[in-house]
Amino acid sequence: MPRVITEPCVGCKHGDCVEVCPTDCFYELDNMLVINPDDCIDCAACESECPVSAIFPDDEADQKWVKINAEADFSNIKNITSKSEITR
User: Fold this and answer.
1) CATH class of segment(s) 3-78
2) pTM exceeds 0.90
3) What is the pLDDT of residues 55-70, one digit of tens each?
């Protein structure tokens, strides 16, 4: 089960989570980060690093956020592999 990013990330994009991801599954929307569920290996490393507690297993998150993460157009948004790459 992949992790998903939820409402507390909207407007934040801290990026601490990105720094610990072994599969580089984070992508940037205009107002938040999302996780590509096809790339997430469910290691949970990102969950404890999130300073706003916005990351959850997909079976514990509101389906609205599961859908936002799963339906992002990953081929047309920026893959974030370092905190310094996040657009502020």
Assistant:
1) alpha beta
2) yes
3) 999 999 999 999 999 9
